[in-house]
Amino acid sequence: MKFIIVGLGNFGASLAQKLTAQGNEVIGIDTRMEKVDLYKEKISHTICMDATEEFTVSGLPLEDTDVVIVAIGEEQGSNIMATALFKNMQVKRLISRAINPLHEKVLVAIGVDEIVHPEEETAERWAKKLCLKNVVDSFELSEDFSIIEANVPKECVGKTIREVGFRLTYNLLVLTIMKKTEVKSVLGKSRTEFRIQGIARADQTLEASDILVLYGANDDLQEFLRQ
């Protein structure tokens, strides 16, 4: 996949390096030349430019880019301006970093596809969400093993855990299943929640709306999600 990451601070630089290491093509952008020089050997491409200027941004390969991530954290105004500019240029998928609740409301109004909260979410988790099909969330236990939340692949819908063969075929352990449930508030309004079903049983049938909680080696998780 091809990514553009604007802002090479701690979060942006870490995410850019992880995505590059996973074999993706990444363009890292920052206004500070020292940041561009620092990461030029660790990220596919680094460019020193101002992503709030329409003329310079229009020269980027936006049509060939799968995801644009605005990771600017220090300057809220620059973040909003860059996000709005990429939105106007109709990039395929736009993700932006929110600094506070009011900033998040502005980003929602602009129409971003997703919002990043680096104080709560790590670059490692976002790298998995962006690169692995069906991943909802992830938690890295070590360099080699993770627990992830993933949508049920179409090929597995209607089958039991035993029939899919998570353990024997993929060397993965299904810890539990989260099922979509309609819950009514005290005011009578309905909302959707995902409720944990307890320890997964081999005879449980998987539904399209289920969320799987899987444990295994990162290589095995990636192999399963690529099926």
UniProtKB/TrEMBL annotation:
Family matches, as InterPro entries: NAD(P)-bd_dom_sf, RCK_C, RCK_C_sf, RCK_N, Trk_Ktr_HKT_K-transport
Annotated ranges, domain RCK C-terminal: 134-227
Protein name: Trk system potassium uptake protein TrkA
GO MF terms held by the record: monoatomic cation transmembrane transporter activity
Organism listed in the record: Cyclobacterium xiamenense
Matching PANTHER family: KTR SYSTEM POTASSIUM UPTAKE PROTEIN C (PTHR43833:SF7), POTASSIUM CHANNEL PROTEIN 2-RELATED-RELATED (PTHR43833)
PROSITE patterns: RCK_C, RCK_N
Domain RCK N-terminal per the UniProt entry, residue ranges: 1-116
One protein family per Pfam: TrkA_N
GO biological process, one term: potassium ion transport
Superkingdom of origin organism: Bacteria
Alphabetical list of SUPFAM superfamilies matching this protein: NAD(P)-binding Rossmann-fold domains, TrkA C-terminal domain-like
Extent of the signal sequence: none
